[in-house]
Specification:
Elements (H helix, E strand, L loop, with lengths): L6 E3 L4 E2 H9 L5 H8 L12 H7 L3 E2 L2 E2 L16 H4 L5
Antiparallel strand pairs: 1-2, 3-4
């Protein structure tokens, strides 16, 4: 048996074992899973691992259907100086 764990989130290097551990410790929505493991918080903002993460979240907890939160996708941004925004023509 291999000691290697399947990497679900390559950007943040989060393995299936880490995700399963977070679920076992109580993470029951995508947002909780994201906050406890950083999965989906890397450079791709979950575009690659999102589907796999959605498949890992249990559909119910104690017989009650949960409404899982959706992962928010943030566009990569960088600071821009005001001089780059403002035009000098009036």
């Amino acid at each position: 048996m291999s000691n290697h764990s399947y990497m679900v989130c390559r950007c943040e290097e989060v393995s299936i074992d880490s995700l399963q551990e977070a679920i076992n410790e109580g993470a029951s929505t995508l947002q909780e899973l994201k906050m406890s493991t950083r999965a989906g918080m890397g450079i791709c903002q979950g575009r690659i691992c999102r589907t796999a993460l959605e498949c890992l979240i249990p559909n119910h907890k104690n017989g009650i259907l949960e409404h899982p939160s959706m992962l928010t996708i943030h566009q990569p941004t960088r600071p821009v100086s005001l001089s780059q925004i403002v035009t000098r023509e009036i």
